[in-house]
Amino acid sequence: MIISGLLAAAVPAAAKSGLILAIGGEPDTGYDPLLGWGRYGHPLFQSTLLKRNAALQTVPDLASEWSLSDDRLVWTITLRPGVTFSDGTPLSAGDVAFTYNEAAKAGGVLDLTVMEKATAIDDLTVEIRLKRPWVTFSENFYSLGIVPSDGYGPGYARNPVGSGPFKMVSWTEGEQLIVEANPDYYGRKPGFERLTFVFAGDDTRLAAARTGQVDMVSVPALMADDGIDGFRKVVVPSVDNRGLSFPMTAPGEVNGETVGNEVTSDIAIRRAVNLGVDRAQLVEVALNGYGRPAYGPADGLPWSNPDAAIAYDSDGARALLDEAGWTVGDDGIRVRDGVKAAFDIYYPASDSVRQALAVVTAEQLKSLGIAARPLGATWEQIGRVDHQRPVMFGWGSHSPLEVYSLYNSAWGGIEFYNPGYFSDETVDAHFADAQQSASLEASYPHWQAAEWDGQTGFSARGLAGWAWLVNLDHVYFVNDCLELGDVQIEPHGHGWPITAMIEQWTWTCE
Question: Which CATH architecture has domain 239-471?
Answer without folding.
Answer: Roll (3.10)
